[in-house]
Amino acid sequence: MFKSIHTACASPRAICLAILIGYIISSASLYADSLYVYLPTLKSVQEMEKVLKVDPALSGFTITVFGKFSELKKQHKASPADALIIPSSFSKFNKGYKDSMQFTLKDKKSFNYLLLSIVKGKNKNQLSTESIGIVDELGRKDTKKYVHRLLGKVKRIKRVTKPDDLMPLLALQNASVILVRPHVYEILKLKYATETFEVSKSIDIPFPVLTVKEGLSADKLEKLKSVSEATIKGLGYSGKTIIGDKK
Hints:
By secondary structure, the protein is an alpha/beta fold. The chain has 2 domains: about 35-105 and about 205-240, Cypl, domain I (D-Maltodextrin-Binding Protein, domain 2, 3-Layer(aba) Sandwich), CATH 3.40.190; about 110-205, D-Maltodextrin-Binding Protein, domain 2. It contains 10 helices and 11 strands. The strands form 2 sheets. The protein has a 6-stranded mixed beta sheet with strand order 2-1-3-10-4-11. Helix 6 links the parallel strand 6 and strand 7 (about 155-160).
């Protein structure tokens, strides 16, 4: 009887081994480089996580996907990311990061925001008296600066958390005009019956980028840049181009 009980009990050596393994696992997670992902897309966080976390190029990185920019901003302030997959506007307002890879769509490196209204006949010259709806990808202050760079002076900026909020914003007349990515609008117009009219288009805007903290090791950067085609498509794009590659 006592023999069977003694056999069932874990030995001190086994306990120490279990503790050591647990420590190694937790330490690896604690010191892994962080990759934050935020894309103002119609894809869900779960869809993006699914493709990102099985890509060998991203192994060794702790991946966090955010559905709202405000969530990323809060986390980034507390613990700055080593790398981000993010709209190209980010590095213009955040020092210490370098864009290293750009996503492409149908062989294009950039797009033009569509400025849409439910009122026919509006033009860009009227924007100084209009309220503009846009998905928040920079925070309040930087979004204001960004929109002014794109459009000049506007009366008011209405930020929403996701692209799906743009059409209701327009339909309910909470904004006179919305700024929307054309490939996103192609999907939105199938979901909403609201008739829209094009007011204008923005200047060329580069598609999202992989941007990395200055000082990230060259081997880790090269690994990140080898992200797979399946991952790229899973994020809603069709290709990539390495920034600085002269080929």
